[in-house]
Amino acid sequence: MIAVQQVSKWYGDTRVLNGCSTTIAKGEVVVVCGPSGSGKSTLIKCINGLEPFQQGRILVDNISVGDRATNLPKLRARVGMVFQDFQLYPHKTVLDNITLAPIQVAKRDKTEAEVAAMKLLTRVDLEEHARKYPAQLSGGQQQRVAIARALAMNPIAMLFDEPTSALDPEMITEVLDVMIKLAEDGMTMIVVTHEMGFARRVAHRVVFMDMGEIVEDRPTTDFFEGAVSERATRFLSKILQH
Amino acid sequence: MKLDFSVVWNNLPILFDGMQLSLVLTALALSGGILLGAILAVLRLSPLRPVAWFAAGYVNTFRSIPLILVLFWFYFLVPLIIGRPVGPFYAALIAFVLFEAAYYCEIIRAGIQGIPRGQRAAALATGMTQAQVMRHVVLPQAFRNMTPVMLTQAIILFQDTSLVYVVTLYDFMTSAAIVAQRDLAIVEVYIFAACVYFCICFTASRLVGWFKSRVEVSR
Ligand SMILES: Nc1ncnc2c1ncn2[C@@H]1O[C@H](COP(=O)(O)OP(=O)(O)OP(=O)(O)O)[C@@H](O)[C@H]1O
Ligand SMILES: [Mg+2]
Asked: Residue of the nearest CA to atom 2 in ligand 1?
């Protein structure tokens, strides 16, 4: 479903991605981890064309992201994305946050979009907050709205960039629970996270990045129990201490 | 000294006409200034260098010339250039619009730039085009954040309309000055004028405060 082939990217003279390759099959859940600055965010932003890259190829459902002829808005409409800092629209209600793209991009009828949005809100357990503004919600609730907003376009895959790292500890579980349900429902997911419990529980594979390179790309049990590279071992021992 | 405010009462029609001119000029200059300012702001943010430079040059020029000079210029020089008089009202209106646009351009530009990049990324990620992101996500937030500053600038504009006396127009302040001198009631008329300006500007700045608190709540 998603193929990343020998992708390299530079910011000016600094190379931030170095020949990255991996493939994600339909229904697969892949966790991406690695030290700060290793290029995790950059890699997933390249997948939906939010960041351009200079070398290699990325295919999403057989459409080449980097191709000039590709209609990027159309491609992005089919890939959901969730950000570390939620990025809900502060001037719109929860319901309007979710229905904006379905109405403006997918040209769906307003009532129909709202009915669908209410179903999604029920799914993330927030139906009673539909008329509130983002600022009136806790971080965990905002992130669940952000997930619902991404799901509203019926994406074929979801990208998550550290969805729980801006949250207070007591709110992390409610967001992870939603993501676990999503994974169990068969959604294709790429999740940048340091929540190793989540990785063990739902990820099919773990990708470890360091200095712009994909250093490890293994089945989950293999990654946690098998012999991994020294760089990955060092990283794991650091984050598992907490 | 005895104050006799009947002079104000007796001259209400003149003062009212003056106030009408002040308000009409403010409203028209405000709309024109915001419209032209928005266009200039978009030009200033354009990736095309010459376009951005042109807009920046415009803004810097008008911000370094005193308003009164711009008024003079349009009243005396423009008729010489185009070969016919433009009339004091239109001369003043054009001058105000061009002058205010420079300030509104900067207010709007700052407002657009003040919206976090992440908002654009999030909106783009849902499949919206750049234009849709501007229209539904960036501009509504930018304008909401800008409202207090824009209103403050409008209050300054309203007070600045008193400068139109230099092009022979009678705004509220000029009318008051005429009445005051003609009827020898300087103290009464100027107290009245000060009260009127205070009431209008105080109400407007309370409005600014109300908008500010509203913007902060929904953040
Ligand atoms: N807009 C930019 N301009 C220049 N360099 C950038 C830009 N964005 C990111 N970088 C650099 O690219 C590298 C990779 O950044 P990236 O955000 O992808 O890392 P990350 O793995 O997501 O880190 P973190 O865990 O801190 O989120 C970093 O060295 C960063 O400094
Ligand atoms: Mg990151």
From this structure: A11
The DSSP code for B18 is H
The minimal CB distance from B128 to the residues A78, A81, A105 is found for A105
* Residue of chain B whose Cα is closest to the Cα of A105: B128
Which CATH topology does B6-218 take?
MetI-like fold (1.10.3720)
Q: Does A85 touch chain B (CB under 8 A)?
A: yes
Q: Indicate which residue's Cα is closest to atom 6 of ligand 1.
A: A11
* A-chain residues near B132 (CB < 8 A): 104-105
- Write down the pLDDT at residue B208: 82
β-pairing verdict for A157-161 and A79-82: parallel
Instruction: Check residues B83 and A183 and name the one with the higher pLDDT.
Output: A183
Show the 3-state SS of chain A: CEEEEEEEEEECCEEEEEEEEEEECCCCEEEEECCCCCCHHHHHHHHCCCCCCCEEEEEECCEECCCCCCCHHHHHCCEEEECCCCCCCCCCCHHHHHHHHHHHCCCCCHHHHHHHHHHHHHHCCCHHHCCCCHHHCCHHHHHHHHHHHHHCCCCCEEEEECCCCCCCHHHHHHHHHHHHHHHHCCCEEEEECCCHHHHHHHCCEEEEEECCEEEEEEEHHHHHHCCCCHHHHHHHHHHHCC
Residue B1: is its pLDDT beyond 80?
Answer: no
User: B37-77 pLDDT, tens per residue?
Assistant: 989 998 998 888 999 999 999 999 999 999 999 998 888 88
Per-residue model confidence as pLDDT tens digits over B9-36: 888 888 899 899 999 999 999 999 999 9
pTM score of the predicted model = 0.83
Give the pLDDT of residue A237.
86
pLDDT digits (tens, 9 = 90+) for B100-126: 999 999 999 999 999 999 999 999 999
Question: Are A96 and A118 a contacting pair, CB within 8 Å?
Answer: no
CA distances from A37 to A194, A213, B122 (A): 14, 11, 21
Alpha carbon separation from B65 to A135, B37, B109 (Å, rounded): 43, 17, 21
